[in-house]
UniProtKB/TrEMBL annotation:
<dbReference type="InterPro" id="IPR041468">
    <property type="entry name" value="HTH_ParB/Spo0J"/>
</dbReference>
<dbReference type="GO" id="GO:0005694">
    <property type="term" value="C:chromosome"/>
</dbReference>
<comment type="function">
    <text>Involved in chromosome partition. Localize to both poles of the predivisional cell following completion of DNA replication. Binds to the DNA origin of replication.</text>
</comment>
<feature type="region of interest" description="Disordered">
    <location>
        <begin position="229"/>
        <end position="249"/>
    </location>
</feature>
<feature type="domain" description="ParB-like N-terminal">
    <location>
        <begin position="46"/>
        <end position="135"/>
    </location>
</feature>
<dbReference type="InterPro" id="IPR057240">
    <property type="entry name" value="ParB_dimer_C"/>
</dbReference>
<dbReference type="InterPro" id="IPR050336">
    <property type="entry name" value="Chromosome_partition/occlusion"/>
</dbReference>
<dbReference type="InterPro" id="IPR036086">
    <property type="entry name" value="ParB/Sulfiredoxin_sf"/>
</dbReference>
<protein>
    <submittedName>
        <fullName>ParB/RepB/Spo0J family partition protein</fullName>
    </submittedName>
</protein>
<comment type="similarity">
    <text>Belongs to the ParB family.</text>
</comment>
<dbReference type="Pfam" id="PF17762">
    <property type="entry name" value="HTH_ParB"/>
</dbReference>
<dbReference type="Pfam" id="PF02195">
    <property type="entry name" value="ParB_N"/>
</dbReference>
<dbReference type="Pfam" id="PF23552">
    <property type="entry name" value="ParB_C"/>
</dbReference>
<dbReference type="GO" id="GO:0003677">
    <property type="term" value="F:DNA binding"/>
</dbReference>
<keyword id="KW-0159">Chromosome partition</keyword>
<dbReference type="GO" id="GO:0045881">
    <property type="term" value="P:positive regulation of sporulation resulting in formation of a cellular spore"/>
</dbReference>
<dbReference type="InterPro" id="IPR003115">
    <property type="entry name" value="ParB_N"/>
</dbReference>
Amino acid sequence: MTDPFATDASRPKPRSGLGRGLNALLGDMAREEPVGGAETSSPGLRTLPVGSLSPHPGQPRRHFDEAALEELATSIAARGLIQPIVVRPHGKGYQIVAGERRWRAAQRARLHEVPVIVRDFDDAETLEVALVENIQRQDLNAIEEAEAYQKLIGDFGHTQEMLGKLVHKSRSHIANLLRLLDLPRPVQERVVDGELTMGHARALIGAPDVEKLVDQVIAKGLSVRETERLARAAKPDPRARSGGDGGRDADLAALENQLGDLLGLSVRIAHSAKGGTLTLSYATLDQLDMVCQRLSGELI
C-alpha cells in the first residue's frame, strides 16, 4: 500500500507559521476570493460539488461518533454548512485537508455543493492543518493524536519542540502521548474505544502482562491511582532479583520505585537522622522539561 505521506529524501524546512495556529497555516482569510464556482484551480473560497471531494487516507482522525454525526447532519440540513471545508487539489478533484466530519454530515444532509477553502498544501502541511484543527476541536483520541505526532516526526523531520509550538502544548505532553504507542496494539484500541483513559494507559506502560492488567482495570473500575499501584505490584523488584541493595532500608527502596514509576525517571533517596536528599536522574531534555512542568504545577 502506498504511503499517503510518502516524500522524497529532502524534508521540508519548518515554516514561519509554525505554532501560530490555523490562521497562520491557512493564510490570511481577508485575501480570499469571493464564493464562486470551481472553474479555476487557484486557492480561495468557493463552492464545490460534494462528489468532487475525497477524504485524505492519512488524516489523524479515524473514528467518527455516529450520534454526533447524525446531529450535525440534521443541523446542516436546517441551516446549511456554515464553516468551509479545507481542501487541496488532488487528481481530477480535491482532497479534504480539514473538515471530513462536516463533509460526511453534508452528504447525509443531501447537500449537492459545499463551501470550501482551496489551498495548495504539501503532505507535511496537510497533516499539520488536520492535526491542529482536530486538536482545537478536541476530536482526536490520545492514540490518534500520538500517531499524528509520530508521523510528523518520522516522515517530515519535526521535533517534539516544533510540535509543541504547533499545537500549543508542552514537549512533555508530546513525549507522554508518544509513549502510549509502546503499549500493545490491543491496549491502544481500548483507549481508542474509550474503555481506557490516557491516564490509565500511561500508568500501565512498562508493566508485564499489560493486557491482563487492562482487563482487571476495566472489570473493577479502578481509578488511575489504583491502576498505578496495580502496575507497580506487577513489576518485579530488581533489588529482590539481585539479592538486595547492600542492606538499604526496604521502605526507602519501595519509595524510590514508586516515585520512579510515577515520574518515569531514576530516583535515589539518601536519608539520615538530620534529613537527606532526593535525586532525580534524567536522560533527555524532554524528561527534564516534564519535571519542571510538574514542579511548577503546569502538568498534572
